[in-house]
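During the second year of the project, the team shifted from modelling isolated chains to modelling whole assemblies. The rationale, set out in the original proposal, was that interfaces cannot be judged from single-chain predictions alone. As a representative example for this report, we include one of the complexes processed in the last quarter. Its constituent sequences, exactly as entered into the pipeline, are reproduced here:
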Amino acid sequence: MMQQTEARYTWGGDEFLFVEIAEGMSLEANFISNSIANALEAKGLPGIIDICPANASLLVRFDPDVLNFAELERAVRGLESEVRASTEKVLETRIIEIPVWYNDPYTNETLSRFREGYHQRPEGNDLDYAAEVNGLADAEEFIKRHHESPWLVSMVGFVAGLPFLYQLVDREQQLQVPKYLSPRTDTPPLTVGYGGCFSCIYSVRGAGGYQMFGVAAAPIFDPAQELDDFSDFMIFFKPGDIVKFKPIDEAEYKRIRAKVDAGTFRYRQAPITFELGAALADPDGYKLSLLEALNDI
Amino acid sequence: MTFDILEPGLSTTVQDRGRIGYYRFGLPQGGSMDQYSATLANRLVGNTVAEAVLECTYIGPKLVTNADAVVAIAGAPVDVFVNGELVPEYERIALKAGDELKFGVIKGGTKYFIAVHGGIDVPEVLGSRSTYPIGAIGGVEGRALSAGDRVPVGASIDNGLPTLECIKDEDRPVYSKDVNVRVMLGLYDHNLSEKGLDSLLNSEWVLTPVADRMGLRYSGPGVEWKDREQPFGAGQDPSNIVDAGYAVGSIQIPGGTQPIILHRDAVSGGGYAMVATVISADMDLVARCAPGTKTRFVAVTMEQALAARHENTVRAARIWS
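Output from the structure prediction step:
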């Protein structure tokens, strides 16, 4: 496939510039989107209201009364060239361990209410279906593949603080699972979901179309800002965060919930430097070096 | 002072100009769905454009003020009653402590706004008092009003403008069941076939009852997508894209059947192709549409969109002088 060398620029009405880095998802496209977003932020152009990096695209909201649209496009195109020309593709970020109770009874109860008319495979649960479409032996094998390699937060959005996650493995190793045929009207908060090549963690209760695999034990959106991890901001995830899912059982889930209720829970996390070149050249080796950062805490 | 809520109405929320600058985290801009009507109410009571108001949906609240207050109602046509007596919309109303404000049946549109001098004074969250129910932030405890709520009203302010008793007829919004909504094509419109694009722009679309602060869904002939190989990570349906940020006002057509206009509380991103975006000058017009409204999407250029935006600015400047 030919490499797309220049993004597609288009307008979402008179207040939004949309920049599609690539049609398909890739680590490179996500890296470029985030790098342009960071550079645009640093530039501090008056009239820019919101810079929203997404999986393989970028949405910029601007005030056309302050910033001329053509001037904005010129500025972003300039930054795109700089980002593409830059040889130093590194990201100062952090790795976070997210405890997940996979295949738990709460998730299974919810998904059992949305089978006929909603789901491709009404029999069994969403993990059984995900294993089947990926040619894996069973749900256990799918769960192992889901948590053994780390993920990049490639986008934050949909609803308050919901992370989209892209797994740091070769394209051939990527798990892909279709979304529900028709979206559910209910998804419990902290459900770990999956659609297309993305995993996600639902931050709040609501509708959703991603397959449901389990429940994360600790909050990722805390409007009351009661936990220490939320003292600066009510939303935990930022684009560029690296996530390692940690499978836990019911006993561990309950221990963590008790800590959350007592206000003493903190995520295990460590600062890391993410190098795109190394991640692309040797995904398996690189993932091990990323995970080492969590060993010392 | 407070407004004491006897009956909450169908869905009454605190709104202001919106929570701007947090879209990148998935927090919608929110704010009064029909900004123009909300500002007219604010103008009448001697506020600035920034004060928070109560946004009423179909059925407004029944409330009692515990102190003297100046209020005004603007937006969808509705009968307004003070202590059971009919009073006019779009006019400044002086309430005495203990007066009861309630509403009759809405006669068009879906939303009207109650402004009070001093503004609704709930705490600001991330720079706004707007209610975001899904995230449970803003407004009164992050939710629509309930019976028994005591809604705080702010202290008197001076907006430095002469008192305005009444909004002139020509400045009042129009509620029509037949509208042209101006859009800019773009985003993923190239994924539509020629026939699909023709359907979008040359069909009559009818607003369904599935319409709220998040989005408005239209029925009509549907649209056709181009045949193509879906890119990696996008999903199988031709209306799917790799999940991306959604422009506020953008139109997506899941499955190619019913277009949805995303409005002020919409999700900030997702995996459905957007094919056009309502221009900023027409977002209030969309907010005024009731189910059953016949709608045509009219394509305009960026220059035309900016000219329409400028017209609105000029009109606002006249009212706010």
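Chain B touches chain A through 52 residues (CB under 8 Å). The mean pLDDT of chain B is 97.
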